[in-house]
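Record type: ASSEMBLY
Status: queued
Input:
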Amino acid sequence: MLKPMWRFTPLFLLALACGESAEAYVWDLPPGFPEPRVPEDNPMSEAKVELGRRLFYDTRLSGNETQSCASCHLQSLAFTDGRVQGVGSTGEVHPRSSMSLANVGYAATLNWANPLIRELEPQALGPLFGETPVELGMAGREDELVARLRGELVYQELFPEAFPEQEDPFTVSRVLAALAAFQRTLISGRSPYDAFTNGDSDASSESAQRGAELFFGEEAECFHCHGGFNFTASLDHSGQVFETLSFQNNGLYDLDGRGLYPTPNFGLFEFSEDRRDMGSFKPPTLRNIAVTAPYMHDGSIATLEEVIQHYADGGRNVTEGPHVGDGRLNPNKSIFVNGFELTPERQADLLAFLESLTDEAFLTDPRFADPWVETDAAP
Amino acid sequence: MKTKTIFLSLLTALGAACGDDVSQTTVSLQFALTDGDTEIGCDDLLAGVGADAVDLEVRDARFYVSNVRLVSASGEVPVALDDVSPFQISDVALVDFESACSDAGDTNTNDVVVGTVPEGEYTGVRFTVGVPFELNHIDQVVDETTTTPEPLRATGMWWNWQGGFKFIRVDLAPTPDSTSPGFNIHLGSTACMGNPLMGEDVTSCGNPNRMEVELTGFDPASDTIAFDLRAALDGALTNQNTGAALGCQSFPMDEECPAVFDNLGLPYGGVAPSGPQSVFRVR
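Status: finished
Output:
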């Protein structure tokens, strides 16, 4: 069996020592992709990425040792979990749906609508130590976490390798650093659509091409919020001077005729307390969107067909249940969610286009898979 | 209280030792967790609290104190906090009544805030409940190499949601036959906005939520500052949970919050408090 390419690539180019030994990390980027922005105090290295992968899949990261990050972020689902809303290690239901981690290293802000979290390192504090809701449930148990990790032979090698300059590399912030380094490698850009734009004219069906035209056209207007190489308005990479950052309201709800969204998912309003930001969320990446159902911050749309219908209707009119109200008339709704004429053919075309964003190689790449499986199987 | 007597005599000794300093003296502010006037602690019962008179048990009770001042006839003087314990640095102190009854806590507790003031006849105390802005939005790390001050390393007090710290953390669990879902009070700065385009973290918070406490008729040598949980829950809807966050966790538009914020003397949802805080008092 062919091993992944990168194992044979000389990943480390020894750089001249300046204070400490630095190894230049070589990214495996799809054509046209910039390098993700890497914080100065957390440079990439192969050892760190491998450590991060181990941690990402390690249930010792949860209080009752039942969950890891991967419990809610499954590779086969582009690192979402297929659930309407996340379920934490103690059974508590998260108010929001899990998010894809494809190309998460390029995101300008993290989570559905938190303008304050802009790096992967602090993001992981939420699932690890957050208590509203409890996800991994480690609040107040950081010493226990470090002790658990210290006891693992694999880590006794990997932590010092990943953090060579540290006398005692076992700390919570290095756990965060390694998790972030691994997540920055979760790059997806080898879908049929990419192949097509890179010159392989057979890679995309005619229907998908018509769908792309609609998507990027001024009638459906999807590209305004799901634009660029990552199909999102939330973008930050190394070649960029300013981050693009945007929170938008796409008309899912209007409970009170003044734009109210169901509690507690108020979107950006939670932070700005400006009523105009009620219901504004980050437009997520649409890469691999065909495998990340259900959709939206609260998982309230089950299929892509319904998502397309939602936009064609210019929002959602909820006529029964606890969230009755006409989201189409939400005063905070973006002017780009105006509705458009949807024929069955157009529906099929848009769907074909969205499906052409699925990157099978990403979903099965052994570099992103659970590393403990091999170890456990070893004699 | 026995421990307190010992502490006071120690202070007198310390004061004597610094005789040649321009009459500085050590002051130790004693705090107590109470149910009305009764001192309580971890796991103790609060019977019939809030507007719904439910039974709750203490699972956590911690808060940060900063900007401490003593008041005499001639005005107020700052209390210079020293770093005598892991619970305080010059800018902030953690008062911690949680003794491992919370999953997010540990056995360490702290009920004093210690500092120096010029000698004088003090009859009042003023302080802020909260972490000063400059410290509230630092990177939260727990390295042995970290520069994070020790009182700020308790992950149970982290407020990852708004990128700061919980100023007050009170967790109250229902008793086995209580109908209440439980009630937490998590106070912290909200409506915090950064300027991401400038690469800055939090630049300001629309609701700082730092409580100002002023207590008169207070003798630092003999009086205790009570943190009264019954008073904190006065009028609160303790038998329901309407927002996502249990009790009042400073989240906007949560029905369980207005009464609690009013007791803390803080505005909530654009409504000013009816008066000063009523939760801390002299005991």
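Annotation: The beta strands of chain A are 13-14, 23-24, 317-318, 325-326.
Annotation: Chain A touches chain B at residues 63, 95, 108-109, 114-118, 122, 125-126, 129-133, 137-142, 166, 168, 171-174, 176, 242-243, 245, 263-264, 266, 269-273 (CB under 8 Å).
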